Amino acid sequence: MTTRDGHPADEAAGSPAYDEPDLLRDQFRQLLRYRWLIALGVVLGLLGGGWLGLRGADSYAATTEITVRPLPTDSSGESTSAGEISMGSERRTASSSVVAERAARTLDTRAEPARLLDDLQVTNPPETRMLRFAYTAHSPGAAARGADAFAHAYLDNREKDAADRVADMVDRYEKQRAPLTKERDRLAEEIASSGKEGALDGTLSAHSSVVSRIAEINGRISDLRAEDTTPGRVVTEAAEPTAPSGPGLPLMLGLGAAVGVGLGLLAAWVRLVFDPAVRTPGDVVRALHAPVLGTLPRRRRRGRRQERRSLLADGRLAEEYRSVAFRLAYDETFARRRRVLVVSPRGGIATALAASVNLSASFAEMGREVLLLEADLRTPSLTERLRQADGIQPGWARAPGHGTIGWPAGHRIPIDAGESGVFDLVPGYRVSKVSRALTSSAVTQLIGHADERDGVLLVLAPAVLSYADAIALIDRVDCVLIVCDPREVRRDDLARVRELVAGAGGSVLGALLHGEGAGPAAPRGGAAPPPSSPARRTHAGPRETELTRQGVALRVTGR
């Protein structure tokens, strides 16, 4: 037997080995289940892109370029060699608060210098002595004025710095020259008043040395005053931009949508990782270590009168039940005992109840003698929702088997399944001690009698994780069919069901998946729904048609 997706059953019973493309496709389909997260990410991305696009629509950038000329002295006052300049230091100086204050005075603005620096960008093209001032403002004129103001402020600051360095050096040399000038004058007076020839020679030598030192200092002062302190020159004046500097609203919306899709997929992936619910048939296979035997098609929501329909399915839903029955019939594990326990993991059993009835009808159509045992002794309802086959006596399960506490009862009810034929029902009744009734010898004899007659036994029990009723029957029924909605059951629940079934000595044949609207409507307030035509019946009898038209509820009583 193979699973619904084509994998062998023995492979699905273990951990299935998916090819990488199949696994990626499965994960992508799971991510698409959280479309609202992806849509939310796209909306947020579009809003962010639109805001940035609109903000950049009224932003204009103007650029001024200048060349930087080396200064004659460095910050320590020492003379620099020709061509020596640090463009990294100059770029940092151009972005300093001192230059920003000069530019603010030039622009005559009330904005803080630090705020002006936020709109300025100074760059140095590689392998050049150029600085590029790019200024952003809300109007073309303001952008051009800002770029020019910062460029000229930088040049003025650099020129003032150079002039201050020259003046400082000149002041130092003048301070060195002052004592030498006094010494020179003193020696000159001494030479004029001296009359000894030997003493005059020494004075003349000292006077000559002082005069030479003074001349050297005067030369340095002259050189410093003659130095060109031009800091640089403007190469390109800022022109008023004709278009905004932003990338544009359409581009920003596209980028925002792309980023939003990425964020949405990331959020969906995180949600998927921490989501305990089963989302795909693959998750069910991995949790149960058993194949998915079928997936019931969803029914469209109809009126309340049409929802209160017969348990017997028709159309696509009936064909899916037939497909599951055929898969079970050719399963080696099922063929040995032909017993199936139909249960749901937790919650209500409305869909499990419909599955047990329709699988019984499908096996009856295959020519098998079928017995449906309603082991739901808490809320039994099958006798109120199924039609007894008129004029047909119970078959192979007719032997009496009264339980010690009233269940199972001694009568069996033949159920008319339309064109599929007839199957027998052992209805459930409310009892005071459910556990004793389920483990009684009468139930064991009934199950064994069904096995002897080469028939098919289907047992309907409450949810495995809600009550222990199903666990009490596993050692005699052996095979378990799980009926669940993959969107409402948790992976931990399925793993727990598998452990309980294996611990009780049974095996999980597979899972039957359903979605909202796939199962029948449960009766409300204990009232039985009006019967409709049975599954796969094309021509209803006169009595049936009349009863259906009048909406009379048939209650089947035991014989």
TrEMBL record:
Give a yes or no for keyword Ligase in this entry.
no
| PANTHER family for the chain | FERRIC ENTEROBACTIN TRANSPORT PROTEIN FEPE, TYROSINE-PROTEIN KINASE
Region annotation Disordered: residue ranges?
Answer: 1-20, 71-99, 517-559
Which residue windows are transmembrane per the record? 34-54
Q: Does the keyword Membrane apply?
A: yes
Q: Which organism is it from?
A: Streptomyces diacarni
Q: List the keywords (alphabetical).
A: Membrane, Transmembrane, Transmembrane helix
Q: What is this protein called?
A: Lipopolysaccharide biosynthesis protein
Q: Where is the composition biased (Low complexity)?
A: 517-527
Mark out the compositionally biased spans (Basic and acidic residues).
1-10
Give me the stretches of Polar residues compositional bias.
73-83
What InterPro entries does the database record attribute to this sequence? Bact_polysacc_biosynth/exp (IPR050445), P-loop_NTPase (IPR027417)
